[in-house]
Specification:
The complex is a heterotrimer of chains A (218), B (552) and C (471). With 218 residues, chain A is an all-alpha fold. In chain A, 33% of the residues lie in helices and 0% in strands. Chain A contains 6 helices and no strands. Chain A has helices at 20-28, 52-65, 72-85, 89-100, 106-115, 119-131. The radius of gyration of chain A is 20 Å and the shape is globular. Helices cover 26% and strands 17% of the residues of chain B. Chain B has 552 residues and is of the alpha/beta class. Chain B starts with a strand and ends with a helix. Chain B has a single domain (5-50, 97-548), classed as FAD/NAD(P)-binding domain. Classes of the chains: A mainly alpha (218), B alpha/beta (552), C mainly alpha (471). Chains in contact: A-B, A-C, B-C. Chain A: Residues 181-218 are annotated as: Disordered. Chain A: It comes from Gluconacetobacter johannae. Chain A: InterPro entries: FAD-SLDH_ssu (IPR024651), TAT_signal (IPR006311).
Chain lengths: 218, 552, 471
C-alpha cells in the first residue's frame, strides 16, 4: 500500500446492500464519529466553496470508499496533501472519476479501475481515507486521526486510542459479536492441533515467517 | 521546608543534588525534600505539557504510529538529544552482532521515560537475585529479595499499583503487604486466553500496573483508552512527573535544560560538585553533600565516563573498570497470529495479562527464561495495513479489518541476557552532541544464553498459537529492544568487579549514589521500573541515614 | 493541591432530612417496635442529615468525634464531639438539652453555638425526630473521650452571647406546619425543600445583610466558586423544561445526560444525602419545586441546558500544527480524550456531553470554571464519577488562569452559551473561592464603624455564608 500512485474515483450511489452489522453499528455508535448533519456546527473549515477539483475529489472519494458521509473539511485537506505529495495527482483523480461515473459498489469500481489502469490510484485513495495519511511512509502528511475510516469497522468494540470509550472497567463486559466470518478470505495454513502441555514436544505448526520490524514495548 | 540556595551567577547549593528527573530521581527527591533536606534536580531536557504530547501523537503519520514511534512526539531540548528512529538520529552508536537489538527509546525530559512506559510494575523473583548461586550463571546481587521486599512495597504504594490480591495470580507470591489496589480486571481476551492456555502450564497472570480503576489520590481512573504508550492522555497512568510535582511541593527545585557534564571530587574522593550547561551553554556548578545520578542506564554511565577527572582518570566510580559494561535489556521477539475466534484485544489498558509459566526453572542454568505479554494494544492499525495489502475495498475491506482486529494476537516475548562485560557502553570518538560532549557507543551481543532461550520460547509460542487455533503465525527473527536498560553501573559486594553496593552507593565515592536500572546485576524477564524505584527508595533511606548519622 | 475542601455547605442544608421520616410515615415509625426500631430510625435520620459530614473528620476520623475545622474568613470553627462521651461529648445531655442544641443552638452549658450549626433549619424538626436522634446518639454511637480543638475566633466574633441577639432576629423557633391548601406531597416537599432549608439555603439569593431575599425563593445564588442556579419552574431561567423524572433522576444520581451533572456542593449533597432519601421524599421535593413561583432573569435568553451542538472542528484541525489557538489546543489535548472531539461525551454518558449542559449554557461561567479548576467528584450508587481538576498538582496538566479562560471560552463558543466570556481574572477569582460577600470583604474594618452587637451579628452571618461559599 506504499505505492504512492494510488487514487480512485467513486459512485455517488450508496452500496446496494448495507449489512445488518453496519446498520447496527451505525446506530449504536451514532455520534461517536459520524454526527447527524443537524448536530454539526455549520461548515467551519469548509467555509469557502470547494473548487471543481475538490468537489470531484470528494465525489470520487465517496464512491471508492462506499461512504457518503465523508467529511468535506477532511476531503479538502486530504486532496491538498495528496496534490503536494504526488505530482499530477489532480489528473489521476480526473481519470478515476471517469471510472467512478458508472456507479456501483467499491468492488465493482475497483474491477473497472483495473481495466482502466487506475487500480493503484484507487487503492491509494482508499488507503489514505482509511489511515488518515497520504501514504504508509515515515512522516507522510496526515489529515485525520479520530476520523480515519479504519476505526469505523470496530467502533462498537474498540476505542479510537487516546479517546475514552466508556466508564472505567467497561472492558470487562462482553465484546459485541464478531458479525463477520472468522475464516480468512485468503488461504492460510490450518491451525495446529492442540498441544498436550508446555514441556511436551511441540505439535506441527505453520513455519515461522519473516515479518516487519517489531513494535517496541516497555 | 528547605530550598536550595542560588548564587547571583546561577550556581546552586543544596543538601542533595540529583541529576535526572525521571521516576527514580523524582521519588528520591520527594522523599528527601519531605524529610526536610534541600534538593535540586538537574534535568537535561525540557518540561513538557501533557496536552502537547497527546496532540503530537494524534498528529503523527499513520506509519509512525503503527510502527510505534514513541520517541518522535516528545520535543527534545536543542542541547540534549535522545534517540530518534523515524528517521534515526544515531545519537547512540550501535555495534556488535545484536547492536540493532539495543535501539532504546528513552526520554530526556522532566519526568523521564515513564511518560511513555506502559506502567507494568513487576517484581524480580527471589531466584533472580541469586543467579550465580542457583543456576551457576550471571551474577548474584549484593542484596537478597528479602532485603528489597519492603522497598518493593513502598514503591508500589508510591506509584499506586494495582495487582492481584489473589496469591495464585501473583508472580512472585512472596510479599509482606498487599498491592495498594486489586488487579485491573481482565477483559474478555485475557479471560478467554487464560481458559485456553492455563491447563497447559502457561500460567497467564494479570500484570501489576501503575494505574487503577478507581481514583488513586487525585489520579483519575483508567478509562481504557488504550494509549498508555506513548502517552496516557488523562494522567491515569503513573508518570514520574507526578513525583516531580510532589518533590517541588516539598521544596525541591527542578532545573530543566541543565546538562550535567563534569563532577568534582576531593582528596577523600567524595563528590563536591556537579557542573552543568544551561540552555545558553553557560556553565554552572551545583555543590552539595549528597549526590545522585539517576539518568537511566545509558546516560548515567555516559556521564560517569565523561566526567573522568584527575583522581578518577577512567571515569567517576570506575576503579573497577565496570562502568558502562554488562549492558542488558530484555532483548525480545514478537509473535503475531490470528486466533480462530474473536479475542478483541485493545479493550482496556495497553497491557493486561502475561504468561509467566516459563519465568523460572532449572533450565535457567542453560538458557534464558521468558515471559510473554499478551499485548492488549488495539490491532486496528496492523489489521488495516494487512487488509489494505490484500487489495480489498468496500465491505470486504471493512470486514477484514474487523476480523483481523478482533482475532489478532501479538505476544511480546522478553528474554534475559546475562551480564557480559563485553556488552559495553563507551564514549564515541567521532560523534558529539551539540555541547561537544561525546555521544554513547554500545556494543551488544545477546549471547548464546538468550539465543537458546529464544529457541525454547519459539516452541512455546507455537504451542500457545496452536491452543488458540492460530494461523499466520509470524515470529520476528531479530531481537528487539524493550527499553529496560540495565547493567552499566552494576551492583556487587566486591568493589573490584562492581560499581555500586547494595544501597546503590558508588564503591569509590561515599556520597554518590547511582540508583536505577544500571545497578541491576540480573535482568530477570520483567520490566525494570518497579525494581528501579525500589532501589531508589532504598538508596534514599541510606542517604537519610547518612544525614542522621552525621556522615553526609 | 487541587481544592477539594469538603463543602461543609452541603451539610446543614441536609439537616432537613432529619424531619423527613416523621413527615413521610416511612415504615420506621416509633411504634413499629421498641428501641431497635427507634435506633434504626435515628441512624437513618443522622445518615440522611449527614451529621457526619461536619462532625466526623474526613479520612479516618472516628464517627462523630468532631474536630473537623470549618474554614471561615475569621478562622476555623471546629465541629463538636457529639458522641455520648460524658467528658468530651454530649453524654451528659438530657433529651431536652439535646433538642435545644439541635433546634435552638444552645449548648448544654448554655453557651450559644455559631450558626455553622444549622439550628435555624433544624428548628422545624418534630419532637419525635429529636427523640429518635437522641436515642440513636446515646445508644449506638460509640463514645470518644477526646475533645476537639476549641474554636477561637478573634474579637468581637468570640462573643458567643451575641448570638442571642442574632437569634432574636433570625431564628424562627417554630415547628413545621403543613399548608392545608396544598397536597400532602407538596407539603412534604416544602418541609424538605424549604421548611428545613434543603434547597433554599443555597439556591435562594441573599441581600447585603445575608438574609434571603423575599420573593426570590430558589432564584439562584452564588456560593463562591460555584453557582446554585435558579431552580424555579421558569422555562427559560429555571427548570421548567425538565420533566419530573429528570429532576428525580438528578437528585437521585446527580446525572441527567443532555441536561446537567452535579458538581461541587451539589455533588456532595447528592452523594451524602439525596441518594439515600426515599423515592417518595425525592418525588415530594420535585413536586414542591415545580409549584413555587417561576422567576425569570432578564439576562437569560434560552434555557441553560439548550445551548450548543457537537463540534466538527476535529476534521479541520488534525494534522495542522502551530496554527491553533490556545483554547482549541488545550481542548483537544486535555478535554477531548474524555468528552470526545465533538464534545458528545462517551457513549454511556459517563463522560458527559458538553453541549446541552447547564455548566456550559448558563449565563454565568462560574460552574464551568470551577469544574475545570477543581474537577468533579461524586460517588453515587457505588459509582465514582471523577473528573480531575486542572490546578496545581493536577495529574493531567496544570493550567494557568489564562489557559482556563482560553479553553473555557473555546467550550462556551463551540458547545455552550457563546455570549458568555471568561477572563483570566474570573478564573483567578474562582480559584480563590469566588466573589466574597461584602461582609467578608470588609471584614474587621467595619467593626469600629458600627454598633458592636449588630456588627457582630452581621459578621457572623457573613461568616457562615462565606464558609458555605468555600464549597
Amino acid at each position: 500500500m506504499s505505492d504512492p500512485l494510488r487514487t480512485g474515483p467513486d459512485t455517488v450511489e450508496p452500496p446496494p446492500g448495507v449489512s445488518r452489522r453496519t446498520l447496527m453499528m451505525a446506530t449504536a455508535a451514532a455520534g461517536v464519529s459520524t454526527l447527524a448533519p443537524d448536530m454539526l456546527a455549520p461548515g467551519q473549515a469548509a467555509a469557502r466553496v470547494p473548487s471543481a477539483d475538490e468537489a470531484r475529489f470528494l465525489a470520487v472519494s465517496r464512491a471508492v470508499t462506499g461512504h457518503q458521509d465523508l467529511n468535506p473539511d477532511i476531503a479538502t485537506r486530504l486532496f491538498a496533501a495528496m496534490v503536494r505529495t504526488f505530482p499530477g495527482y489532480g489528473a489521476r483523480i480526473e481519470a478515476l472519476s471517469h471510472v467512478v461515473g458508472a456507479g456501483g459498489t467499491p468492488e465493482e469500481i475497483l474491477a473497472r479501475a483495473e481495466e482502466a489502469n487506475q487500480r493503484q490510484t484507487m487503492l491509494g485513495l482508499v488507503a489514505a481515507w482509511f489511515t488518515g495519511s497520504v501514504q504508509d511512509r515515515t512522516n507522510a502528511p496526515m489529515v485525520a486521526y479520530h476520523d480515519a475510516l479504519m476505526y469505523r469497522p470496530t467502533r462498537d468494540a474498540l476505542p479510537v486510542p487516546t479517546y475514552c470509550f466508556a466508564a472505567p472497567a467497561w472492558w470487562t463486559e462482553a465484546p459485541p459479536p464478531l458479525g463477520v466470518p472468522v475464516a480468512s478470505p485468503v488461504p492460510v495454513p490450518a491451525p495446529a492441533p492442540p498441544p498436550v502441555g508446555i514441556q511436551s514436544p511441540p505439535p506441527p505448526q505453520s513455519k515461522i515467517l519473516p515479518t516487519k520490524p517489531p513494535a517496541k514495548e516497555h | 521546608m528547605a530550598h536550595p540556595s542560588f548564587s547571583g551567577s546561577g550556581d546552586v547549593t543544596a543538601d542533595v543534588v540529583i541529576v535526572g528527573s525521571g521516576v527514580v530521581g523524582a521519588v528520591i527527591a520527594h522523599q528527601l525534600a519531605a524529610a526536610g533536606h534541600s534538593v535540586v534536580m538537574l534535568e537535561a531536557g525540557l518540561r513538557l505539557k501533557r496536552s502537547d504530547i497527546v496532540e503530537n501523537w494524534r498528529n503523527m503519520s499513520f506509519h509512525n504510529r503503527v510502527h510505534s514511534d514513541f520517541q518522535g512526539l516528545y520535543p527534545q531540548a536543542p542541547l540534549a538529544p535522545a534517540p530518534l528512529y523515524f528517521p534515526a538520529n544515531d545519537y547512540v552508536g550501535l555495534s556488535g552482532p545484536d547492536g540493532s537489538a539495543f535501539q532504546q527509546g528513552y526520554l530526556r525530559t522532566v519526568g523521564g521515560t515513564t511518560w511513555h512506559w506502559a506502567a507494568s510494575c513487576w517484581r524480580h523473583l527471589p531466584a533472580d537475585f541469586r543467579m550465580k548461586t542457583n543456576y551457576g550463571v550471571g551474577r548474584d546481587w549484593a542484596i537478597s529479595y528479602d532485603d528489597l521486599e519492603p522497598y518493593y512495597c513502598r514503591a508500589e504504594e508510591a506509584m499506586g499499583v494495582s495487582g492481584p490480591h489473589d496469591p495464585d495470580l501473583q508472580s512472585p507470591r512472596e510479599r509482606s503487604r498487599p498491592y495498594p489496589r486489586d488487579m485491573i480486571p481482565f477483559g474478555y481476551g485475557d479471560r478467554r486466553v487464560a481458559e485456553l492456555v492455563n491447563p497447559h502450564g502457561f500460567r497467564l497472570v494479570p500484570i501489576p500496573q501503575g494505574r487503577s480503576i478507581q481514583p488513586f489520590e487525585d489520579r483519575p481512573s483508567c478509562c481504557g483508552n488504550n494509549n498508555c504508550q506513548p502517552i496516557c492522555p488523562i494522567g491515569a497512568m503513573y508518570n514520574g512527573i507526578q513525583h516531580v510535582v510532589k518533590a517541588e511541593d516539598a521544596g525541591a527545585v527542578v532545573l530543566d535544560q541543565a546538562v550535567a557534564y563534569r563532577i568534582d571530587t576531593d582528596e577523600k574522593n567524595r563528590v563536591t560538585a556537579i557542573h552543568w550547561y544551561d540552555a545558553e551553554r553557560k556553565s554552572h556548578k551545583a555543590t552539595g553533600r549528597t549526590f545522585v545520578l539517576a539518568c537511566n542506564g545509558i546516560e548515567t554511565p555516559r556521564l560517569l565516563l565523561l566526567a573522568a577527572n584527575e583522581r578518577n582518570p577512567t571515569g567517576i566510580a570506575n576503579s573497577s573498570d565496570q562502568v558502562g559494561r554488562n549492558m542488558m535489556d530484555h532483548s525480545g521477539v514478537h509473535a503475531t497470529f490470528l486466533a480462530n475466534e474473536p479475542l478483541w484485544f485493545g479493550r482496556g489498558p495497553a497491557q493486561s495479562s502475561c504468561i509467566v509459566g516459563p519465568r523460572d526453572g532449572g533450565f535457567r542454568s542453560s538458557y534464558s527464561a521468558n515471559k510473554m505479554i499478551l499485548n492488549n494494544i488495539s490491532r486496528v492499525g496492523p489489521a488495516t495495513q494487512q487488509a489494505l495489502e490484500l487489495g480489498l475495498v468496500g465491505q470486504a475491506l471493512e470486514d477484514e479489518i474487523r476480523r483481523r482486529a478482533a482475532c489478532g494476537v501479538d505476544l511480546s516475548v522478553s528474554l534475559e541476557p546475562l551480564p557480559d562485560p563485553d556488552n559495553r557502553l563507551t564514549l564515541s570518538r567521532t560523534r558529539r552532541d551539540p555541547l561537544g560532549l561525546a555521544c554513547p557507543d554500545i556494543h551488544y551481543d545477546v549471547g548464546e544464553y538468550v539465543r537458546k532461550g529464544a529457541v525454547a520460547a519459539a516452541e512455546q509460542i507455537k504451542q500457545v498459537a496452536g491452543l488458540l487455533g492460530g494461523t499466520e503465525l509470524r515470529v520476528t527473527t531479530s531481537f528487539n529492544a524493550n527499553n529496560h536498560i540495565m547493567g552499566g553501573a552494576i551492583m556487587g559486594s566486591d568493589p573490584k568487579d562492581s560499581v555500586v553496593d547494595g544501597d546503590c552507593r558508588a564503591h569509590d565515592h561515599a556520597n554518590l549514589w547511582l540508583p536505577g536500572g544500571g545497578a541491576m546485576p540480573s535482568a530477570s524477564v520483567v520490566n525494570t521500573t518497579l525494581s528501579m524505584v525500589a532501589l531508589g527508595i532504598k538508596a534514599a533511606d541510606s542517604m537519610q541515614a547518612d544525614f542522621q548519622g552525621g556522615r553526609a | 493541591m487541587i481544592g477539594k475542601g469538603r463543602a461543609a455547605w452541603g451539610r446543614y442544608v441536609l439537616g432537613p432530612a432529619l424531619g423527613v421520616m416523621s413527615m413521610t410515615g416511612v415504615a420506621l415509625a416509633q411504634d413499629a417496635g421498641g428501641d431497635a426500631a427507634l435506633v434504626a430510625r435515628g441512624r437513618y435520620l443522622a445518615t440522611a442529615a449527614d451529621c457526619a459530614a461536619c462532625h466526623t473528620t474526613p479520612h479516618g476520623g472516628r464517627p462523630f468525634a468532631g474536630g473537623y475545622g470549618i474554614a471561615s474568613p475569621l478562622g476555623s470553627i471546629y465541629a463538636a464531639n457529639i458522641t455520648p462521651s460524658k467528658v468530651a461529648g454530649i453524654g451528659a445531655y438530657t433529651e431536652a438539652q439535646f433538642g435545644r442544641a439541635v433546634r435552638e443552638g444552645i449548648r448544654g452549658d448554655g453557651a450559644r453555638l455559631y450558626p455553622a450549626m444549622p439550628y435555624t433549619s433544624y428548628a422545624r424538626l418534630t419532637d419525635a425526630d429529636i427523640h429518635a436522634l437522641y436515642v440513636y446518639f446515646m445508644q449506638e454511637v460509640r463514645p470518644v473521650d477526646e475533645r476537639p480543638p476549641a474554636t477561637h475566633l478573634p474579637f468581637p466574633f468570640n462573643l458567643r452571647f451575641s448570638m442571642m441577639v442574632w437569634n432574636a432576629l433570625y431564628l424562627d423557633n417554630t415547628r413545621f406546619a403543613p399548608d392545608p391548601a396544598k397536597s400532602a406531597e407538596v407539603n412534604r416537599g416544602a418541609y424538605l425543600a424549604i421548611g428545613l432549608g434543603h434547597c433554599d439555603t443555597c439556591h435562594t439569593p441573599r441581600n447585603v445583610m445575608m438574609a434571603e431575599i423575599g420573593g426570590k425563593e430558589l432564584g439562584g445564588a452564588s456560593l463562591g466558586a460555584w453557582i446554585a442556579p435558579n431552580i424555579t419552574p421558569d422555562p427559560v431561567s429555571g427548570i421548567g423544561n425538565w420533566s419530573s423524572d429528570d429532576l428525580f433522576r438528578y437528585l437521585k444520581t446527580g446525572d441527567v445526560p443532555g441536561k446537567a451533572q452535579a458538581a461541587g456542593p451539589m455533588a456532595e449533597a447528592i452523594e451524602h444525602s439525596f441518594q439515600y432519601l426515599t423515592d417518595d421524599d425525592l418525588k415530594a421535593i420535585v413536586a414542591y419545586v415545580r409549584q413555587v413561583p417561576a422567576l425569570r432573569d432578564a439576562a437569560d435568553s434560552r434555557p441553560r441546558e439548550s445551548f450548543g451542538m457537537a463540534s466538527g472542528r476535529e476534521a479541520a484541525l488534525r494534522g495542522v500544527s502551530g496554527t491553533l489557538d490556545n483554547g482549541e489546543k488545550i481542548f483537544s489535548g486535555d478535554c477531548a480524550a474524555c468528552h470526545q472531539p465533538g464534545g458528545q461525551g462517551s457513549r454511556d454518558s459517563y463522560y458527559p456531553q458538553l453541549f446541552h449542559n447547564t455548566a456550559t449554557g448558563a449565563s454565568t461561567p462560574d460552574n464551568l470554571i470551577a469544574a475545570i479548576v477543581e474537577g468533579v467528584d461524586r460517588t453515587v450508587g457505588g459509582q465514582h464519577v471523577f473528573m480531575p481538576g486542572f490546578s496545581h498538582g493536577s495529574y493531567v496538566d496544570e493550567l494557568s488562569d489564562q489557559d482556563v479562560a482560553d479553553v473555557g471560552n473555546y467550550v462556551l463558543t463551540h458547545f455552550g452559551n457563546p455570549a458568555v466570556k471568561i477572563s483570566a481574572a474570573d478564573v483567578a477569582s474562582i480559584r480563590h473561592g469566588g466573589p466574597k460577600p461584602l461582609l467578608a470583604r470588609v471584614g474587621g474594618y467595619i467593626v469600629p464603624a458600627l454598633a458592636g452587637a449588630v456588627v457582630v451579628l452581621l459578621a457572623l452571618v457573613g461568616l457562615v455564608v462565606a464558609r458555605r461559599r468555600r464549597g
